[in-house]
Write a structure and sequence with these properties.
This protein is mainly β. It has one domain. It has one helix and nine strands, in the order αβββββββββ. A nine-stranded mixed sheet has the order 4-7-8-9-1-2-3-5-6, with no helix packed on it. Strand 8 and strand 9 form a beta hairpin. The N terminus is likely disordered.
Length: about 150
């Protein structure tokens, strides 16, 4: 009787483990984006860096305006939210369908000098809790914004 009981317990344990692993929601893979990076102006008229990225496989795009207080150098991570106002971002699904992000993160990883492009990753947290993310290649536009 003990052997039968142990087999039943073992079978229940394996079934529970299998169901838990099958029902766990996997995070969607990060999408690839391509776009531009250029000089811009922050809302308070200080110099900033603007990043506009379009999804390679879709019709949506993201926008960032970053003013970390120091010159952009590689590698560099810029994180912003209500407590750290050093940037802003938006997620757009149509021409007039953009949603401002509650927080964001841009990780400038490397530069390709031959293509004059920056490589990196980004994340945006929306006010309803959704998180969007992707990797990108952004071409440097040699345009100097006049702020102030």
């Amino acid at each position: 009787m003990n052997a039968r009981f142990l087999c039943t317990i073992t079978a229940l344990g394996l079934t529970t483990t299998l169901l838990a692993s099958c029902s766990a929601a996997a995070e969607p893979p990060a999408e690839n984006y391509r776009g531009t990076i250029r000089s811009s102006c922050a809302p308070h008229d200080a110099p900033s860096t603007e990043l506009r990225l379009e999804s390679i496989g879709g019709s949506h795009w993201v926008w960032f305006n970053l003013w970390p207080g120091e010159r952009v150098q590689l590698p560099m991570v810029v994180r912003f939210d209500a407590d750290h106002p050093v940037g802003q971002g938006a997620y757009c699904v149509g021409p007039d369908e953009c949603e401002a992000a509650a927080w964001g993160e841009v990780d400038l990883i490397a530069a390709d000098p031959d293509a004059e492009a920056f490589l990196g990753e980004w994340r945006l947290g929306m006010t309803d809790g959704r998180v969007a993310s992707g990797s990108f290649e952004a071409e440097w536009l040699a345009i100097q914004a006049m702020c102030g």
